[in-house]
Amino acid sequence: MIVDLHSHLIPGVDDGAQTLEDSINLARMGQEEGVQHIVLTPHHRNGQFINHKEDVVKFADKLSADYERAGLQVKVYPGQEIRLTQQFMDDYYNGDLLSLDGSDKYYLIEFPTAKVPEFAHKILSQLIDMGITPLIAHPERNHQLAENYDDLYDLIEMGCLSQITSSSYVGLYGEKFQRTAREMIELNLVHVIASDVHHVDFRPFNMKAAFNQLEKDFDSAKVNYFLQNARDIFNGDPIEKLEPIRSKSKRKKKKRFFGLF
Ligand SMILES: [Fe+2]
């Protein structure tokens, strides 16, 4: 059973599917790849889109009924991809944030593309102290984390998890993202593979392709690790975490050194 924890399938609420027809076509694509459960994670507070909890729940109910009418078996659930802003804890306490699981243990959190904000550690450690696990969306696309794997290592050590995007890992977005995703997996800095699906051609599911690639680059144990982690998170259960490894790459160290001046 494949659980996809990151998707943009609610029509017209962000830069994902724009019409119900797009959304149904995408969901069918996922279903054909073996995806059975999908968490709907529209962008929230990314500077462009705001999707309040109440609205997402309503849209998810409607989409669920629309999929059923269209004869799809795949099931969808409300969630959010939440940009980490200074407002995060206020939104949390105001009950405006959606988790990835029924028991509110895991939240999908996105950093700005360029870097990890200064205030990130404070908010993330506050969440971890409360028994909440932040799942960091696509670290391979964050410039700081892609340059310094040890910065991602530190976040994992403090108790965060991370999710890479299937299409990055299979090379759809270019060799650089693919290499970064693979190296992050090698260092046990990744816990989830999800689609972050937006569009049939440009940002498709690629879940099956990603698991095939994993089997090729690693082994079937690695495939099972990622499949099981997504199920555990979806169920609100703790995951079995592989021990993260600090990067020994000279390239990374050199960049880190020069970054001091
Ligand atoms: Fe996303």
What features would you describe in this structure?
The structure is a single chain. The protein has 261 residues and is α/β, with parallel strands linked by helices. The chain has one domain (2-258): TIM Barrel (Alpha-Beta Barrel), CATH 3.20.20.140. Helices cover 43% and strands 14% of the residues. It is built from 11 helices and 9 strands. It has helices at residues 20-32, 53-69, 88-93, 120-129, 143-147, 149-158, 166-169, 175-186, 207-217, 220-234, 250-258; strands at 2-4, 35-40, 43-44, 75-78, 81-83, 106-110, 133-137, 161-165, 192-194. The protein has a 6-stranded parallel sheet. Helix 9 packs across helix 10 (220-234). The longest helix is centred in the N-terminal third of the chain and has 17 residues, at 53-69. The chain is globular, with a radius of gyration of 17 Å. It starts with a strand and ends with a helix. The model has no long low-confidence stretch (mean pLDDT 94). The protein binds fe (ii) ion. Fe (ii) ion is lined by residues 6, 8, 81, 137, 196. The site of fe (ii) ion (FE2) has 5 residues, from loops.
